[in-house]
């Protein structure tokens, strides 16, 4: 069999098994925590034990964990994530809205961070040991070390009057044209995206610098220099290509985790995304929402890893097993 | 400084690439822009919603038979009513010719349908509203604008109950009530909502935004504003920043830490009113609790109460904005319900020490007293993130009398399970910090500590048959003076037994732009007992 195909099949199998394990763990994890959805929902003044039992029955919480697990897997296989205990809406609808709000904001920040990070890292490596390098390294390390929510609050404090203080759109914009709406959304996205970008920028810059330094010291770069190639050409065609291996891995890994990790940024900027949805689902023990949200996060992480594996394969022909 | 400059430089770069121009906020017209922090909307379904904000939205969207003006109940959809001589039949005269926002007639038939349906599924899907019909047996409509409600017995709380019962459009909800009625719990009530109140809910985006537009078909005095937009913030700092930058006109529930700063801003007005939200230190009062049984002794509880410096605790926990209270009925609910003669012991750490010495609880080597062979060292359960300052203050105070406290924070769900647990038997917990919001009518607040609420609302596992008897009596006593005497007596019983040590009522802090006026405050974060909050609001300049 073709070794490349064999590798893809193996990686696919590993990804699927990982997702299955994560689904099972997610299911179990929230049921081990004390308190359940009914203990919140049923505490109305006239509630009786019988009513609480009825509600547990309606949610299927009166069945054994094993039976609940099988039912959950069966529904999942049919693509049904269930209905939220809290608001009775399909989980897929709740999640779709939240994810639809989070993704553009996170992607904008990430793209900016990737471009700025790689550029900074390359510049630092090429100018190794100079003042520029030191300044870039110090600034990368600084933003890498800053907590996201603190950066968010600081930006809010400094730029609150320039950019909107929170929310996703200006709801009071009367019948905006599509162009006005787009501008409005981007305007609101600026600060939260910027925080996402700043928190990711440092690690991209530092890793790119290290990877570039390694490749720039390779013999083939020396050969390229000896051939009289320009620095720009050496960096673009010889050094950066090889340095992209670890960078692409880091980008894929951080893309996966950033979606779930923006809860604090979303809180600071009142952004109605997946982080806030998860937070409120945890506090109300909304199992279907939690399971759905964590399934999405798991799939995002696993898919990003999987894609990074495939990119690796494409970038580095030496990898065969 | 370096950090700041780096950030500012980076901001300038990115802002240049993404921002194509400032958004033009439509602040003209009569749309009031309101911001509110940490006020979740659990649901807009009246049978499900329990949080204050969705209840306030419903108060403005649905008709109610009666409503509060201040602390007193007055006419609303019913312009007048009378009670039969035997006190068991109430007749309400409704606004004739009223309409829902979709043009359908709003009549007594809608009220009858709401009441009968809530009674029918009271043990299942409509339980969330059914407590408002305690003592009601049936409703009927002799004509389109007359509603007759039958009571099992005379009921002093009837009007207060009806003031919280929304009248729902039968033509919208009827299909959900088919069969076993379980559709009522699942009813999404998505915007636009068919409305009958002063406003119609025309838009709702979860965790984001609500838009209330003036309802042209409203039977009462129309609001002055065309619309009220409520933006949901998850951070108080962001909301305050939005107010200062004219992104919103009113900020509800402003953090106490920024009040002084806002007061110094000439373009803003800040209001501070004591809330009906009462914070308490609770004791597990289940007489069957296996450990630390010394805490069941009212003398120990009194000693603990007198060791807590409540004025200082209040000042610390609320940044000087709260009010010290002595009973579970705070003065802010008015009506004279607070028993003025009921007082907690004044702060006296020496007296508390003497009291515990007299009980024979000697101090061990580490300074912690020993009671019945074990140290007086207790876990205090509370909801994380909200009560740390209270806890620290109490821990310091009790440390001085040889009682050691350990924090046991958790999230709200785990807190309820632990305080009631295991299996609602009240065996695991010693002490807890909680808060309860009293309505203008004291019955619900008083009922929290009744035997009937064990395993449900009762967080202290407290059960006193005399108290329960009085709770029943005050609900049927029609003479206001006599009813007040019973309520006073109940507060005295709680002061003797001390299942809770009332600590303070926090303040409700709102701020609005000086270009608006006509705001009416209430002891609730958002007013869910009247439509006063936005009724008279208008642009002033």
UniProtKB/TrEMBL annotation, chain A:
Q: Where is the ABC transmembrane type-1 domain?
A: 99-308
Residues annotated as transmembrane:
12-33, 105-126, 138-165, 185-207, 243-269, 289-308
Q: Which domain of life is it from?
A: Bacteria
> Does the UniProt entry include the keyword Transport?
yes
Cell compartment(s), UniProt = Cell membrane
- Coiled-coil zones: none
- Keyword annotations of the record: Cell membrane, Membrane, Transmembrane, Transmembrane helix, Transport
Instruction: Output the Pfam families linked to this UniProt entry.
Output: BPD_transp_1, BPD_transp_1_N
- Which CDD domains does this entry report, sorted A to Z? TM_PBP2
Q: Which Gene3D superfamilies match?
A: MetI-like
* Protein's membrane topology: Multi-pass membrane protein
Record family assignment: Belongs to the binding-protein-dependent transport system permease family.
Q: What is this protein called?
A: ABC transporter permease
Its source organism is Microtetraspora glauca
